[in-house]
Amino acid sequence: MKKALLLLLPALMFGESLKSILEYASQNNNLLEAKKLTKNAKESEVASKKSDYFPKIDIGATYQNSTDTTPMEVENVYALYGKVGVDIYDGGAKAALLKRAKNELGAASYDVQETKETLLLEVVKEFYTIKTLEARLSALEDARGSLFEQKERVKQFYDAKLATQDDVARLQASYDQKSYEIESLHFEILRAKKSLQLQIGKEIEHFESSVFNENMSYEPKSAIKLLEHKESALKSGAEALGSVYAPNIKLEDRYTLYEYGDTALTYPAKVDKQNVLMLNLNMRIFDNSTAKEAKEALLLDARALGEEIKYHAKEQKMLHELSIARVASLKSKIKSAQSALVAATSAFTTINQKYSAGIVDYVVYLDALSAKTDALSLYEGSLYDLQVAYATSCFYGGKKLQECVE
Hints:
Elements: H1 2-14, H2 18-28, H3 30-51, E1 56-65, E2 76-89, H4 93-159, H5 165-200, H6 222-242, E3 248-260, E4 273-282, H7 290-356, H8 362-396, H9 401-404
Antiparallel strand pairs: 1-2, 2-3, 3-4
Helix pairs in contact: 2-4, 3-4, 4-5, 4-6, 4-8, 6-7, 7-8
């Protein structure tokens, strides 16, 4: 029992890292699991199209009963047969349909990847939203602690007739306001955690700090590769429709065993077994351009996807450049926020001492406390915003988020 508690202690103390959360979400999100099942269906479809190249073997049996037969006919005929058929030439239809199925599988695979990366980016944003809220909560709790100390000090002065009831009331009001803000933040943190829980598939109470590496390289996202495979699938479908006008040659061999019921003495010699070899040629010469128009429709859809791919490629490039600019902007913001925090902390330390000594009034003290609280929240929030910016740059750079987080 003690050994088990010791093993759990690190998790209880440090919580889970963002990397482990992303890994869990990629395996347990219901929407992502649905995309994976769709991909599995496409894999089965590819296997089915490959099987179309193999000969088709059928077996069967027939029973024929005829009434009012003549002496030259038999009333009951039983037959057992086996049939083998193979397509010698189909105008490339099977090859085109297999190519289409493979492209649809590729599209489904990239759909899984794109859904996964989009989900994980939302998880990252929610993760750092929680960290930002917790940083704000810590700053408010620190401010409330300072107010509590001053409130208790002024109460002692009031009891000694050295301060007024108004002094105590103002500190109590500020203390209560901070308490309300803290309770509101508790709710916001709970909401964010519940949202994160839905995305990743489990409940997490403690979050370990995590950082992203600064990787600004670029490659096309899964969403663009997905559309490229869809475009290729449409072209392959059009190719399959075009094969309708090509000759189709099929070879079929049928072997049959016969058994007869009672026959007349004058019935001719019975056939006990028979092998029939057939070579079929079929070619469509007119359908009022039905297949031709359907092929043209698919090609137009493919062209439309091609234009959409061009647009999304430009959009991804633009968003990647903006994410890099965002990183640079946040670095400057952090530097400024850090300077503001140092100044606000120093000013509050001095004013807190002066307020305790009765040199400055309540308004000056409260302004200094608020400035310190806001500066601390801004600085820590900016640090987390930078991590989100790194994650966004990774996302629009076409890389996997799990490879970017350390």
